[in-house]
Amino acid sequence: MAxxxxxxxxxxxxxxxxxQAVQRALPRLGFAGIADVRQGxxxxxxVEGPVDDAALGRIREMAETFLAxxxxxxxxxxxxx
Amino acid sequence: MTARIGVVTFPGTLDDRDTxxxxxxxxxxxxxLWHRDKDLQQVDAVVLPGGFSYGDYxxxxxxxxxxxxxxxxxxxxxxxxPVLGICNGFQxxxxxHLLPGAMLRNNHxxxxxxxxxxxxxxxxxxxxxxxxxxxxxSIPLKNIDGRYVADxxxxxxxxxxxxxxxxxxxxxxxxxxxxxxxITNAAGNVVGLMPxxxxxxxxxxxxxxxxxxxxxxxxxRKLVNT
Amino acid sequence: xSERSERTNEHRMTLDTVKHxxxxxxxxxxxxELGLKxxxxxRIRAILDRRxxxxxxxxxxxxxxxxxxxxSSKIHLKQFDEKAPQNDAMLVGIGENAGVVDVGQxxxxxxxxxxxxxxxxxxxxxxxxxxxGGIVRDILAMGAxxxxxxxxxxxxxADHPDTKRVLPGVVAGVGGYGNCLGLPNIGGxxxxxxxxxxxxxxxxxxxxxxxxxDIHLAKASGPGNKxxxxxxxTGGDGIGGVSVLASETFSDTGPTKRPAVQVxxxxxxxxxxxxxxxxxxxxxxxxxxxxxxxxLSCATxxxxxxxxxxxxxxxxTVPLRDATLSPEEILMxxxxxxxxxxxxxxKVARFLEICExxxxxxxxxxxxxxxxxxxxxxxxxxxVDVPPRTVAHxxxxxxxxxxxxxxxxxxxxxxxxxxxxxxxxxxxxxSVLALVSSPNQAxxxxxxxxxxxxxxxxxxxxxxxxxxxxxxxxxxxxxxAVATDGNGRYAKLDPYTGAQLALAEAYRNVATTGAKPxxxxxxxxxxxxxxxxxxxxxxxxxxxxxxxxxxLGTPVTGGNVSxxxxxxxxxxHPTPVVAVLGVIDDVTRRTPMAFADEGHLLYLxxxxxxxxxxxxxxQVAHGHLGxxxxxxxxxxxxxxxxxLISASRDGMVDAAHDLSDGGLIQAVTESCLRGGLGARxxxxxxxxxxxxxxxxxxxxxxxxxxxxxxLRFTDMCGARGLPATRIGVVDGDSIEVQGQFTLPLxxxxxxxxxxxxxxLA
Lengths: 81, 226, 761
Prior knowledge:
A: three-stranded antiparallel β-sheet; 2 helices; 31% strand; B: nine-stranded mixed β-sheet
């Protein structure tokens, strides 16, 4: 079975409190040099049948309507090889 | 003499003042501890109260676990310092590996606030001595990440060693494995639980019950008698 | 930071300075895109005696918007001041962030209810969350520790697909933000009606407590005092229309996309609360203001205007989340979790130290000057030079036309009292089950259990009790009670009476728990002010509320107006939501709603008439809305409240519950289920059983009286002239209406508690 990965991230202009909290904790833990952190979600979809354009189209639609809230989030869809 | 019980405030801690009040009502002296201070001010015991430290960002308790005060709490706990973690405090204790397992999102995915019935399974810890094994108590539960999980081996070990301190009675509100609401470490000095005993210490307030006061009288009696 | 400096250079090259504006009087400006009318733009030019700079235009346009200036509602709202009853408890009146009421023992309480309707429709979770955040900062800015919140919510039909999208998001947002702040959520409402489809109402209330001497006001006085911005960094949140200006300025590169949705960070807000309270404790501020709508534009112009008038701000010192923001956008940004304080120079170091302790970013961005102008600079160049009062307080005032709609007569003539009623015992019994299981009358526990009601350890009563009660002094047991109510169906039938019914119900709810009502806050949710019918509804509701407050002696201390709640021509029901605050000297005397003792006698207080217009029964049984709402008798409400408060203080009643939508059977069902005991009811001789059970006559409550207190209680009611009718006894495990039907509690519980989870879980 093929795997398709959907990454969902807050849009760049949207405040990401979680990423900020992590970023601010890093120096205290001795991890220097990280200018920014943004936290997102990763979905791994095990696809039955071929991952063709039609399947990817359906997955994009799924991501757009369900996995991501496109008011505040962007997503990317890619085939995991 | 009385006992001095430290109550830690992390950024985002909510129930610190309530916990201090519960400590006072039990007759002990609450001492406020700040997350940035390593100095535990020679307290006799420490409570990590509930709330959303660091907003629960990343994972509940994951960032607090690295605060300076926790270095001292972790070291103290290994030397026998009594430590109670309530709700977010329990999450900090599991993230610190002072207690095994982890807390995940409730199985229904919602925050839940209710008067929760618990069965006391172990009345031998320093925090539960004023209860009796098998006793049922009701104290408020309020969290969104309250589902206790651990691998089967760990769970079997906890059961075998009597380290399950509380179980949810009559209804499991979050999908915790084996209905576990609270556990202790092998030495019995570190206890963590999801429900909030500090919110059940005064008649009329909250649920109107005082079933939670026993946590604080237990530790006081233990400390004063030794 | 090379990117930042490049951007800065661009800003400089295209900056619309005051000097530039003076030199280029004929430059076309996008005043219309910013929502200004021609005459408003001309007025700005007259005030400044030149064209405004882009930054000035942005400030005026947002501060003169309906949302900030109340230009359509102002002439009606002034009645709340003009008709305000004499009330010695008022320490700070209408006009500040929130009113402040004396509750005795040196304590003062501040409370306010506000709307966040439209943002909650666009993005339910964040809309509701930032609504909570905004009202909490309002209360904090008065110098108070926030001690409780509540959320009156209204959604479309319960079974509509969009309600399934909006409601869970709103509830999770209210909980996700409020729970994280450590504020108990102690009440509120959830109402379903198809009129709110596409226009949900998400109102939020916060209560705060302080000592009298800790009251802080939003003003900037004392030349030389520093202006400190603290809290979150400023991003492009909620700048909406102002981006027009930015795009004009940056024709070449253009700013990045601006978020349409503001994201709240409750963790940051919690730090802001604790940090601010510590700053108050050390008496480090001379004035303070939260940043809400219109952000820095609003905070700087209001602070300056309320103080001596002069302020100088270096806008480029504002810490940014997005380095590409233009000065206009920084002024307009509605990024959450920010506050602005005026601090004496010698206290600045300590102020910054406390902020550092709480990991809160704080920056001195300017100072109070001895002039009378608000002056804002960007890298040394002046981009704003205005009299702050003209921005903050001297916006346009409209006298919108209003007229009683043509359909009002037909609506009122469509008499609900003439609707077919259940015939026979079986139909009556089935009607009861249908009522208590209908979405509006069903238990809302599935929703309210997602809110923390215990945190802070002072909650005495919380939903579904008549009012939320919190203790404010553990040593003396002093407490406050708050209730919010509103009934859009009543208000649609008659907005004047509907507003008074909302007031009467909230007032009654506070008294039912044993507290003395003191003050009012309101959130007025209406349709478009450009529609004379909606404007008439608004005018009538204001008049009704102001008249009602005068009779009850409870002044309006503040609130909020939300207009344009409509889709196309279809407006929501006029929905004035009224919050009443009361004080209870000893919370141990509070009266809960649960019937928890067998044998206690049930008394119905007040008169029951045939009043079914706008009733829950007419909606559930017939989908009907017509006729007249129940009549209001405010003198009777006062008497009822006095009796309920005396009975609570002197221990004459053990439980009480107000009668409102759903009537007597709804109230008895709720009290029985809460206490886990049944009741035997006898229909009074002069009443028809259906009317007895379902009428919604106002000014009524049901109380449970211990037998030992019966004589004392009925004597008191008799002596004061309040009708008190013995209607039954607490008993058994079912509700029995003698001669009619019996309903086991288990069956009632399943009906009452199953509906909402079935619809939403």
